[in-house]
Design goal:
Catalytic activity: L-cysteinyl-[protein] + hexadecanoyl-CoA = S-hexadecanoyl-L-cysteinyl-[protein] + CoA
Membrane topology: Multi-pass membrane protein
Number of strands: 8
Structural class: mainly alpha
Order of helices and strands: HHHEEEEEEHHHEEHHHH
Protein name: Palmitoyltransferase
Strand order of the largest sheet: 1-2
Largest sheet: 2 strands, antiparallel
Number of helices: 10
Keywords: Acyltransferase, Membrane, Transferase, Transmembrane, Transmembrane helix
Family: Belongs to the DHHC palmitoyltransferase family.
Radius of gyration: 24 Å
Shape: elongated
C-alpha cells in the first residue's frame, strides 16, 4: 500500500511539473526595455558605431543593466528592438528575447528561462525519483527473470524491458539533474557557463553568485513550503538581478591588463539603481553596500550612470 501511494505521488508531481514546464510561457522583457518610436528612428538614421551606441546609452540610462557585449557595448536585440536586460538572450527557435534564458529544450518544446526554470528542475527531480522507484520495485522480478523464477510467459520480457528503461533513464536524468543543481548553487545558466557574463572592464563567471543559500532562494523563493511544489515562487521579475560585485571594494579589485590606474577605482562600480523589491533584500546583509556608500561612489565618479559609459574599442 505504501509503495502504491508513493507511486501515485511521484507520478502526479511528475505530470504536474512537466505540464508547467511545457505550458508556462517564457517571460519577455518589460516595456521599459523596448525602444521608443523616436529612439528607433534615431537608431535607424545613425550610421553604425559610436553614434548608435549614444542612442542606446540614452535609452538605457535609467535601466538596471550591468552587463555588456564583448566589445563593451550596450546589449541590444535588433530583432526585438529592445535593450537586453541582464541574463536575457534571444532564442532563435522562439524568435524572441527570453528573460534569464537557460536553453531551448526540445524535449518540452519550450524555452527554459526565468518563468519556468523551477518547474524544469522539479520535472527533472520527480522524473529521476519516478525512474528510481520503478527500477527498485522491478529489481526483484528482474532477478527472478535470470534465475528462471518467473512463469514462462511474454510478461517476463516486459519486466526486463521496464527495468532496463528505468535504469537507463535514471542514469541520464541523474547526470542532467546534478548539472542543473550545480548551476543553481553557482547562480549560473547553461548559456553563462559557455559564455561568462561581461561586466564593466572584465568578464566575471561568478558575478551573479551571492552564496549557496541566496542562490537557492533566487530560484525557489523564500518560503520553503513551496519549494517542492510546481508553483512559481522565484524571486524578482527576471529583468534585474543582484550581483556580488556591488559589495566588493573597488580599491581592492584587480585591475585588468591594459587599464590605467584611474579606471581601477571604477572597476566594480555600478549605478545606484534600486533592484526590484523581491530581489534587493538578498543584499541587505552585505555590510559594504548601502545607500550612503552608493551615493558617495556616484558623486566621486561624477557620472549619472558609470556602468553605461562605453569603453573605447580597440
Amino acid at each position: 500500500v505504501v509503495c502504491l501511494v508513493a507511486y501515485h505521488i511521484f507520478f502526479m508531481l511528475f505530470v504536474w511539473s512537466y505540464w508547467k514546464t511545457i505550458f508556462t510561457l517564457p517571460m519577455n522583457p518589460s516595456k521599459e526595455f523596448h525602444l521608443s518610436y523616436s529612439d528607433k528612428e534615431s537608431l535607424e538614421r545613425e550610421p553604425r558605431g559610436e553614434s548608435q551606441q549614444e542612442v542606446l546609452r540614452r535609452a538605457a540610462k535609467d535601466l538596471p543593466i550591468y552587463t555588456r557585449t564583448m566589445s563593451g557595448a550596450i546589449r541590444y536585440c535588433d530583432r526585438c528592438h529592445l535593450v537586453k536586460p541582464d541574463r536575457c538572450h534571444h532564442c532563435s527557435v522562439c524568435d524572441k528575447c527570453i528573460l534569464k534564458m537557460d536553453h531551448h529544450c526540445p524535449w518540452v518544446n519550450n524555452c527554459v528561462g526565468f518563468s519556468n526554470y523551477k518547474f524544469f528542475l522539479l520535472f527533472l527531480a520527480y522524473s529521476l525519483l519516478y525512474c528510481l522507484f520503478i527500477a527498485a520495485t522491478d529489481l526483484q522480478y528482474f532477478i527472478k527473470f535470470w534465475t528462471n523464477g518467473l512463469p514462462d510467459t511474454q510478461a517476463k520480457f516486459h519486466i526486463m524491458f521496464l527495468f532496463f528503461a528505468a535504469a537507463m533513464f535514471s542514469v541520464s536524468l541523474s547526470s542532467l539533474f546534478g548539472y542543473h543543481c550545480w548551476l543553481v548553487s553557482k547562480n549560473k545558466s547553461t548559456l553563462e557557463v559557455f559564455r561568462a557574463p561581461i561586466f564593466r572592464h572584465r568578464t566575471d563567471k561568478n558575478g551573479f553568485s551571492l552564496g549557496f543559500s541566496k542562490n537557492l532562494r533566487q530560484v525557489f523563493g523564500d518560503e520553503k513550503k513551496y519549494w517542492l511544489l510546481p508553483v512559481f515562487s522565484s524571486l524578482g521579475d527576471g529583468c534585474s538581478f543582484p550581483t556580488c560585485l556591488v559589495s566588493q571594494d573597488p580599491e581592492q579589485a584587480s585591475t585588468p591588463g591594459g587599464l590605467n590606474s584611474s579606471s581601477k577605482s571604477e572597476n566594480h562600480l555600478f549605478p545606484a539603481k534600486p533592484l526590484r523589491d523581491s530581489q534587493s533584500h538578498l543584499l541587505t546583509d552585505t555590510p559594504s553596500w548601502s545607500e550612503t556608500t552608493a551615493k558617495a561612489e556616484k558623486g566621486r565618479v561624477g557620472m549619472s550612470n558609470p556602468a553605461l559609459t562605453m569603453e573605447n574599442e580597440t
